């Protein structure tokens, strides 16, 4: 995108406020559009997207069983299981329906929201500050959804299967509430989406001169230890495959962050 800085000249405070009002209005229109669409596909949303990780027929569980047969390592296969959810509150399912639709609609609106924010602030920036915005816009949106997908297809199912079937005694059956399940799903999904923004954050920090490529290379060993610890906490299973399956994407993000950082020898002014 190439916006001229002249676009913002001569505009009063109220003109900028009016522009901000229309920016917010367009974002709300996009959010409302996704909410209406999702309400129309509620059965598909819950039965095919939200609740499949509750049974052993989910894709990641089938893949792990196939891999266990191929590697002759039976411990990888989670086996047959079925986790049932319960609802405590009279309005619990209705509120879960509303919160789920609005949360997913918000997640789907994020790329357009980023675009509108950039469209609003770009006239006030210099040309050199805007030249890489196309790459940043695409990569930030792509990485967020990639992190959300990793959480949905890998981290959340493994966590819910372990915690949902874990028992200290047969005398204490698990009764998992609908609210607990939904909040865990969205929390992990959003957290992994933000975590996958690491390369974009590294790119901006390097341009500000706070970190360099050499800084991240020097801290690679420490980063590996931290990533392994985080992976062990996120996936409380005992097999090393699950922990490595979570650690590998995080480590790859760290390596990508090294690549996008500017070297120490590069002068910021010369590159701009």
The major β-sheet equals: 2 strands, parallel
Which class of secondary structure composition applies to the elements?
A: mainly alpha
| Strand line-up of the largest beta sheet | 1-2
Tally of extended strands?
A: 2
Task: Spell the H/E element sequence.
Answer: HHHEHHHEHHHHHH
Average pLDDT, rounded to a whole number, is 82
Uncertain runs:
1-8, 267-272
Total number of distinct structural domains: 2
List the helices and strands and how they pair.
Layout: H1 13-40, H2 42-50, H3 59-71, E1 85-86, H4 92-121, H5 127-130, H6 133-165, E2 176-177, H7 178-195, H8 198-207, H9 213-218, H10 220-234, H11 240-260, H12 268-271
Parallel strand pairs: 1-2
Q: What does this entry look like structurally?
A:
The structure is a single chain. The protein folds into two domains: 12-195, no CATH class; 197-265, no CATH class. With 272 residues, the protein is mainly α. 70% of the residues lie in helices and 1% in strands.
């Amino acid at each position: 995108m190439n916006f001229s800085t002249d676009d913002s000249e001569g505009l009063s405070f109220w003109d900028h406020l009016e522009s901000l009002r229309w920016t917010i209005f367009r974002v709300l229109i996009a959010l409302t559009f996704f909410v209406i669409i999702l309400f129309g596909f509620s059965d598909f949303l819950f039965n095919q997207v939200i609740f499949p990780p509750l049974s052993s027929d989910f894709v990641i569980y089938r893949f792990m069983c196939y891999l266990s047969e191929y590697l002759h390592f039976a411990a990888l296969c989670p086996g047959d299981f079925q986790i049932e959810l319960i609802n405590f509150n009279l309005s619990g399912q209705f509120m879960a329906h509303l919160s789920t639709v609005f949360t997913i609609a918000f997640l789907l609106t994020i790329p357009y929201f980023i675009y509108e924010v950039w469209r609003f602030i770009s006239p006030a920036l210099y040309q050199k500050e805007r030249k890489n915005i196309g790459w940043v816009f695409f990569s930030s949106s792509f990485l967020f959804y990639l992190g959300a997908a990793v959480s949905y297809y890998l981290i959340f199912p493994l966590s819910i299967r372990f915690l949902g079937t874990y028992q200290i005694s047969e005398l204490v059956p698990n009764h998992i509430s609908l609210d607990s399940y939904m909040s865990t799903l969205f929390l992990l999904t959003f957290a992994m989406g933000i975590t996958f923004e690491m390369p974009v954050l590294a790119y901006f920090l390097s341009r500000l001169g706070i970190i360099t490529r050499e800084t991240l290379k020097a801290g690679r060993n420490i980063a590996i230890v931290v990533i392994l610890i985080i992976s062990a906490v996120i996936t409380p299973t005992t097999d090393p495959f699950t922990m490595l399956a979570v650690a590998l994407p995080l480590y790859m993000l760290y390596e990508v962050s090294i690549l996008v950082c500017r070297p120490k020898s590069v002068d910021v002014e010369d590159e701009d």
